[in-house]
Design goal:
This protein has 358 residues and is α/β, with parallel strands linked by helices. It has a single domain, classed as Alpha-Beta Barrel (TIM Barrel). 39% of the residues lie in helices and 16% in strands. It has 12 helices and 13 strands. Strands 3-4-7-8-9-10-12-13 form an 8-stranded parallel β-barrel, surrounded by 4 helices. Helix 3 links the parallel strand 3 and strand 4. Helix 5 runs parallel beside helix 6, helix 8 runs parallel beside helix 9 and helix 9 crosses helix 11. The longest helix is centred in the middle third of the chain and has 18 residues. It binds flavin mononucleotide (FMN). The site of flavin mononucleotide has 27 residues, from strand 4, strand 6, strand 11 and helix 10.
Length: 358
């Protein structure tokens, strides 16, 4: 079954990237994707934010921007899904072409620019899917490109979506829109988060704990800015930090002729810088804030490295483009074997293990 779907994924790679992505999403949203057994090796289970995750592997934001394929994505065997980024109003995103494969580098460059159907279309889809999801589903929030005030956009999104999502991620790190990164300085970021936390509490008075709110970081941040941003996130009592988004950096050893395309680079070249950033954030927060590790994960070894560096959960996107959906099952089996081989009784015991002596 998985072999058929991996072959389908290989055939999709013959199409232009955005057409292939649309076709994959269509198949997943029409029940044509693979269906993995819903039972996971118990060593992979964990509880974070009082929610149970049967395994720590999730689909990263941007794969299902319009919340159309939540059930199909969960059938791949992931422990959770993050849909979006959603903006208050629908927007077309940047002109095409805006998505490029770099196969020799196992990477992708995108400058999609938050193309999405907008809050009014996406909210009911999310609500419907959540009713039967049975696993954690979060949503990634972004401001409209032409908004008068990005903070107002985020506040509206939190107010409308906090009652319906298992978590909200505030994307303060998008390289592809004019206002994608304005909250990277501590003053505006602190003000924004204080406002969003208040909106969230007001929107979900009966939820305990309130819907967890995360911030997603950029890998293109220097050490002193990082320390200031992380201090601001801690002071705001953020519930989780997603490390990290795509990078505008272009490593010297990229080979593909698309390497000069403008946009955010993801996939294998992002693995080391994103894991090092994760390690720094874990150190700065002293393990007090759960981290979601994302960037270049393509194997059980990669997921395990993120967990040891400090991630409680892991997400991926680009590797699915190259390896197809059977990657999820392989990755989980390999991760479970690695945890056992190193003597961990459960996943939580391995989180941040690199930071502890012995
Ligand atoms: C085509 C594409 C669209 C993306 N859209 C979003 C988005 O809307 N919001 C967001 O926070 N991250 C977005 N991302 C970033 C991913 O969530 C992830 O952080 C990044 O791709 C690194 O993971 P990977 O190397 O496993 O792909 C997007 C990535 C890609 C490739």
């Amino acid at each position: 079954m998985s072999a058929i779907h991996d072959t389908a994924a290989a055939l999709l790679r013959l199409l232009p990237p955005e057409s292939a992505h649309r076709a994959a999403l269509w198949a997943l949203s029409h029940g044509l994707g693979p269906r993995q057994a819903r039972t996971d090796d118990p060593i992979l289970a964990s509880t974070v934010w009082q929610r149970s995750f049967p395994n720590p592997i999730g689909i990263a934001a941007g794969f299902d921007k319009n919340a159309r394929a939540i059930a199909g994505l969960l059938h791949l065997g992931v422990g959770f899904v993050e849909v979006g980024g959603v903006t208050p109003r629908a927007q077309p995103g940047n002109p095409t072409p805006r998505l490029f494969r770099l196969p020799g580098d196992r990477a992708v460059i995108n400058r999609m620019g938050f193309n999405n159907d907008g809050l009014d279309a996406i909210q009911p889809r999310l609500q419907r899917a959540m009713a039967s999801a049975g696993r954690v589903v979060g949503i990634n929030l972004a401001a409209n490109a032409d908004t008068a005030d990005p903070a107002d956009d985020f506040a509206l999104l939190v107010e409308r979506l906090a009652p319906h999502a298992d978590f909200l991620t505030v994307d303060i790190s998008c390289p592809n829109t004019a206002n994608g990164r304005i909250f990277l300085s501590p003053g505006p970021l602190g003000d924004l988060l204080a406002r969003l936390m208040a909106v969230r509490s007001a929107a979900t008075p009966a939820r305990t704990p309130p819907t967890p709110m995360f911030a997603k970081l950029s890998p293109d941040i220097d050490d002193s800015a990082l320390a200031a941003v992380v201090a601001t996130l801690s002071a705001a009592a953020i519930d989780g930090i997603v490390v990290c988004n795509t990078t505008t950096a272009r490593p010297e050893d990229l080979r593909d002729h698309h390497r000069g395309q403008r946009g955010g680079l993801s996939g294998r070249p992002l693995f080391t810088p994103s894991t090092e950033l994760l390690r720094r954030v874990y150190r700065l927060t002293q393990g007090t804030i759960p981290l979601i590790g994302v960037g270049g994960v393509a194997s059980g070894a990669d997921a395990y490295a993120k967990i040891r560096a400090g991630a409680s959960l892991v997400q991926l996107y680009t590797a699915l483009v190259y390896a197809g959906p059977s990657l999820i099952g392989r990755l989980k089996r390999d991760l479970a074997a690695r945890l056992r081989a190193d003597g961990f009784g459960n996943l939580a015991a391995a989180v941040g293990a690199d930071h502890r002596p012995g």
